[in-house]
Amino acid sequence: IKKKQQDVVGFLEALKVEYTPLDIACNENNRMWMRENVPKEKKPSNGIPLPPQIFNEESYCGDYETFFNAKEDNLVYSFLGLPPPPGSKEAGQAESTPITENGTHAEEPSTEENLDESISEEVPVGERNGNTHREEGAEQDAVEEVVDGEVMEGQTAAAAKEEATGEEEETEDT
Length: 174
Hints:
- The chain has helices at 2-14, 28-37, 64-72, 76-80, 89-96, 111-122, 157-173; strands at residues 53-56, 59-63, 100-101, 104-105.
- The protein is mainly α.
- The strands form two sheets. A two-stranded antiparallel sheet has the order 1-2. Strands 3-4 form a two-stranded antiparallel sheet.
- The protein starts with a helix and ends with a helix.
- Mean pLDDT is 73; it is low at 99-120 and 131-162.
């Protein structure tokens, strides 16, 4: 029992979830509260649930076994009745899970079927290659050559050449 309690507490601390452990060995009120608030269908055959039992305020979350399963499935926040933090695996799973309506999965349009349609409707064909903002004949390609050994990242070849010749003129004036 102690090892299971330590596992739950350690995991909650790792997730930085605030919790309050209630000692049922030394406090009869805590013991009675736990026994009264564990749902009947979750109690063992003898009627006395063993710790750890996990609650979110007054709401019963589950015992160690259900906690362990939620941990294995990356669903601890759902198990605890808490919103998952953005960027967590559980938040990603929640976003990718299809919406259910009356216990059945709602039909979602296939992204493969609509991919070509959405591209053709949103982006004109002439602009799909990324040349939308370029003028014809202008030297706007990203620098792939080095001018005088120094080129700033993202600088265009024309700008690098102008800068290199401008620096030479400045050095002659001094």
